[in-house]
Specification:
Its cofactor is FAD. Belongs to the class-I pyridine nucleotide-disulfide oxidoreductase family. This is FAD-dependent oxidoreductase. Pfam families: Pyr_redox_2 (PF07992), Pyr_redox_dim (PF02852). It comes from Rhizobium mesosinicum. A hairpin with a 5-residue loop joins strand 14 and strand 15 (about 260). By secondary structure, the chain is an alpha/beta fold. It has helices at about 15-25, 45, 50-65, 80-105, 165, 185-195, 215-225, 320-330, 360-365, 380-385, 415-425, 430-435, 450-455, and strands at about 5, 10, 30-35, 110-115, 115-120, 125-130, 130-135, 140, 145-150, 175-180, 200-205, 230-235, 240-245, 250, 260, 265, 270, 305, 345-350, 355-360, 370-375, 395-400, 405-410. The protein is about 30% helix and about 25% strand. The longest helix is centred in the N-terminal third of the chain and has 26 residues, at about 80-105. Helix 1 packs parallel to helix 4 (about 80-105), helix 1 (about 15-25) crosses helix 8 and helix 3 (about 50-65) runs antiparallel to helix 4 (about 80-105). The N and C termini lie far apart (about 75 Å). It contains 13 helices and 23 strands. It folds into 3 domains: about 5-150 and about 270-330, FAD/NAD(P)-binding domain (3-Layer(bba) Sandwich); about 155-270, FAD/NAD(P)-binding domain; about 350-455, Enolase-like, domain 1 (2-Layer Sandwich), CATH 3.30.390.30.
């Protein structure tokens, strides 16, 4: 019979929240085990944020090389070496994995690699290379993340489609890439592969891209992609798939539409990694979509068990997972930090970027808020003109009578950095005139904030 190894705490899954908590507690002298199937550092480093943004940067350079004539420099015969792009991406990932491994080693935590599942409350069995280890601890922290969803579409699984993971490792450039799903991952990967030289078609079931954004943002994003030659097909329902990705694949719609490609990439949402890991044996409840049910301090239905990150239904961003760590740390220390009312920003790394913090205009209407809107075209910002980055706009939602900033959206160059300025003002409870009247350096993109908030109408 396999002996049970005991620890002070077990982190089940090595994502951002889990690994941060584990290293901190291990450095403090606690006996900590991290159970991880194989991605040292978590999915962000291995298969998500870091490799995708590295690929996107390579695509940006390729695009800039092909468009230098607008700046007075002529470069001829520009071509993409996809194996070199892939190898650069892999090098960046390997360096960050090594950095994380060094952090694990220095902290003194016990890294247990293998597939884990609960076999009893607070007891996890880990299988790797035929060996079995059983671990137990009075405190368990689940941080398993999500995987790409493969929808139940006839012929889709048989077509062996790419997900973002496989797309990041391609050695040959697709000639015609079909992207199933127009969400953030789909949009980012579509533009990247288009800029690397592939013909790209986005096949989206909904009536528009970025449906959670205001209509002007959705249209602006669509225009950006279409202006680069990406075909955007909307309202594509009752799909069927024929063929094999990497050879020839055909996606058909219920109304007779047909799209043919060499490769098929699925970017149709995320599924929590909760199936088949014995959560029922541990007394841990999940919702109808499979996400672990938690309270506002991320405690599960099982005493002494917390869930963090995407698997707990938190916003699917690494920075949200990091804040989950802070929430759990507060819970352990009898603090009062919670997930309730968090101001979580996000950026879509297309070019130009789209960024948002707080609510948009559609949210304000839905919530019945009285508000004012200010909008500014990027084209009027001097720095945007000097950079020839004139696409997009800034948009702010402001209270009708208190001057509170409800939200900020931006489609434009450096949108993520500019958004952070507004976020700091919102966190500090500053009224919008503070940004309107601030002395902002000229010429910068952030200078546009003064111009934007000058457009807010007088309060009612």
């Amino acid at each position: 019979m396999t002996d049970i190894e005991t620890f002070d705490m077990i982190v089940f899954g090595g994502g951002k929240a889990g690994k941060t908590l584990a290293m901190e507690k291990a450095r403090a002298g606690r006996r900590v085990a991290v159970v991880e199937e194989g991605m040292i550092g978590g999915s962000c480093i291995n298969v998500a944020c870091i490799p995708s943004k590295t690929l996107i940067r390579s695509a940006e350079v390729a695009y800039e090389a092909r468009t230098t004539s607008a700046f007075g420099t002529i470069i001829e015969n520009v071509r993409t070496d996809l194996p070199a792009v892939r190898d650069r991406t892999a090098k960046v990932v390997a360096e960050m994995v090594a950095t994380n491994q060094a952090g694990f080693d220095a902290s003194g935590l016990h890294l247990v690699l293998g597939f884990g599942k609960f076999i009893a409350p607070k007891t996890i069995e880990v299988v790797a290379s035929g060996s079995i280890r059983r671990l137990s601890a009075p405190q368990i922290f689940i941080n398993l993340g999500t995987v790409a969803t493969i929808p139940e579409i006839p012929g889709l699984k048989e077509a062996q489609p790419l997900t973002h993971k496989e797309a990041l490792r391609l050695g040959d450039l697709p000639t015609r890439l079909l992207v199933l799903g127009g969400g953030y991952i789909g949009m980012e990967m579509s533009q990247a592969f288009r800029r690397l030289g592939a013909d790209v078609t986005i096949i989206e079931r909904g009536s528009r891209l970025a449906p959670r954004e205001d209509l002007d943002a959705s249209k602006g994003i669509t225009d950006v992609l279409q202006n680069e030659g990406i075909c955007v097909a909307l309202d594509c329902k009752d799909l069927t798939v024929q063929g094999t990705s990497g050879q020839r694949v055909v996606v058909k719609t219920g109304d007779g539409g047909e799209f043919e490609g060499s490769h098929l990439l699925v970017a149709a949402g995320r599924t929590p990694r909760t199936a088949g890991i014995g959560l029922d044996l541990a007394g841990i409840d999940v919702d109808e979509r499979g996400f672990i049910k938690v309270d506002d301090q991320l405690r599960t239905s099982a005493e002494g068990v917390w869930a963090m990150g995407e698997v707990a239904g938190s916003p699917m961003f690494t920075h949200a997972s990091l804040d989950d760590y802070r929430v759990v740390k507060s819970s352990l220390e009898e603090g009062f930090r919670s997930t309730d009312g968090r101001l979580v920003p996000y950026v879509v790394f297309i070019d130009p970027e789209f960024a948002r913090v707080g609510i948009n205009e559609e949210d304000a209407k839905r919530e019945g808020l009285e508000y004012r809107v200010a909008k500014l075209a990027m084209d009027v910002i001097p720095r945007a003109r000097t950079m020839s980055k004139r696409q997009g706009f800034m948009k702010a939602i402001v209270s009708a009578d208190t001057d509170e900033i409800f939200g900020f959206s931006m489609l434009g160059v450096n949108a993520g950095e500019v958004m952070s300025v507004v976020q700091m003002a919102m966190l500090g409870g500053l009224p919008y005139p503070v940004l309107r009247d601030a002395i902002l350096a000229h010429p910068t993109i952030s200078e546009g904030l003064g111009m934007l908030f000058a457009n807010v109408s007088a309060s009612s």
